[in-house]
Amino acid sequence: MNYQKSHTLILNNIARFIDLTELEKQKYLSLLTEITVKKKAFLMQAGEITKYEYFITKGCLKVYTLDEDGAPHISMFAIEDYWTGDMASFMSKDPTNYFIKATEDSELLGISRANYELLFQEIPKFERFYRMLYQRSLISYIRRSNHGISLSAEQRYIEFKKKYPKIVNRITQKDLAGYIGITPEFMSKIITKVNRKQNS
Amino acid sequence: MNYQKSHTLILNNIARFIDLTELEKQKYLSLLTEITVKKKAFLMQAGEITKYEYFITKGCLKVYTLDEDGAPHISMFAIEDYWTGDMASFMSKDPTNYFIKATEDSELLGISRANYELLFQEIPKFERFYRMLYQRSLISYIRRSNHGISLSAEQRYIEFKKKYPKIVNRITQKDLAGYIGITPEFMSKIITKVNRKQNS
DNA sequence: ATAAACTCTTAAACTAGTTCATTTTTTTTC
DNA sequence: GAAAAAAAATGAACTAGTTTAAGAGTTTAT
């Protein structure tokens, strides 16, 4: 069967961990909602109750909170083939603390809370898929939370470039600073310094 | 049916997310290995290949890495009713970077890689259990990784006391410093300062 | 019960990262 | 394609957290 590009992408993502029959694939796709967000528009804002978990099929988004001083702290960047959302709010139905804003025109597939529950009833194999997806995410967040407290800002920047070479060129230095956990001014100094080292 | 204390503890932990029949409970328990670790002994050391994922039934352990300078960075403290291990090494079969050391005489239940796989074949419901367990862990690690980069050491200490009141009195100040990501000297200053504030 | 080995406290000098202010460069908008 | 807005660079003064050192208080092992 021939699927549209975004559907092929999400089915391939799922095929990393579980095999679906044609029927299951179609059932699964029927549970998803297509969403588009223009650059600079919000997919989610603090105070809202999170309705969906998202898979990005095109574009780039940043997920962040604002602290009491209004300074942004970026939790992740999400590009094609990434999953994002606010799982805490999605599960608890409490209002989210996060903003998700498109940094490029973006296209997503969303699964609602009701369909997420339904999915496990209809195709129990998805328990395994999410078990493995969460397991992988967990491994990378454990690493990140350790790096956040044990590495210098410069080392975190070098790690980021190594781990996300595709993302580093699509985001502003300012947003990268918000992810690394430093000011844009200090980010600028680090980049100058690291590039000087590499070119010498 | 009447179970020994450690078995009741782990079965209750699992019952938060899935219901098991008596037969399934017994099957599950048969896949576990009992382990005891004396205070100051290692459950795991960097370079080893991780054989088990662990559930603590008694005691307290610290999970940490050593950086190039030999300074410890504590990833988590695990007490009764907590799960621990190095999932990255457990899954990939690569050598671990972690040390796990008992800070009190401890008792654990371990599941081996082979039995973990077997578990999903024999009792597929466990996919759901681990999906939900990892989902919850993920939520708390996402929060921690954000706090690591966006909160001051003093705020992280206050958060830790609030979130883990049972743990804070069982560990040394030095180990807490290793978790918060600061030196023991600065930890001492923060504690003096925070207690002074509270008593005034 | 005592020595040895840690852990905690305090303080002075230091460094990584912040803040604030200004200028230059790049991107967005009409 | 010019004007406006946002991002990036640079520098000086500042603050949170480190380092080193030394002494006091606790825990551990015999």
Strand content of chain A: 15-25%
Instruction: Provide the low-confidence segments of chain A as ranges.
Output: none
* Rg over C-alpha atoms of chain A, rounded to the nearest angstrom: 18 Å
What is the count of β-strands of chain A? 8
Intertermini distance of chain A: 53 Å
Tell me, briefly, the overall form of chain A.
Answer: globular
Structural class determined from secondary elements of chain A: alpha+beta
Largest sheet of chain A: 4 strands, antiparallel
Number of helices of chain A: 9
The protein's oligomeric status is: homodimer
Largest interface: A-B, 30 and 30 residues
Helix and strand element order of chain A: HHEEEEEEHEEHHHHHH
Percent range of helical residues of chain A? 40-55%
Query: What integer is the average pLDDT of chain A?
Result: 95
Element layout with pairings:
Two copies of one chain form a homodimer.
Chain A: H1 5-15, H2 22-30, E1 32-37, E2 42-44, E3 52-58, E4 60-66, E5 72-79, E6 83-84, H3 87-92, E7 99-102, E8 106-112, H4 113-122, H5 125-150, H6 153-163, H7 165-168, H8 173-180, H9 184-198
Antiparallel strand pairs in A: 1-8, 2-7, 3-6, 3-8, 4-5, 4-7
Chain A binds a DNA duplex (30 and 30 nucleotides) through residues 152-154, 172-174, 182-189, 191-192.
What can you tell me about this protein's structure?
The structure is a homodimer of 200-residue chains. By secondary structure, the first copy, chain A, is α+β, with helices and mostly antiparallel strands. The first copy, chain A, has nine helices and eight strands. A four-stranded antiparallel beta sheet of chain A has the order 1-8-3-6. A four-stranded antiparallel beta sheet of chain A has the order 2-7-4-5, with helices on one face. In chain A, a hairpin with a 5-residue loop joins strand 4 and strand 5 (72-79). In chain A, helix 6 (153-163) crosses helix 9 (184-198). Chain A starts with a helix and ends with a helix. In chain A, 33% of the residues are buried. At the A-B interface, helix 3 and helix 5 of A face helix 3 and helix 5 of B. The first copy, chain A, binds a DNA duplex (30 and 30 nucleotides) through helix 9.
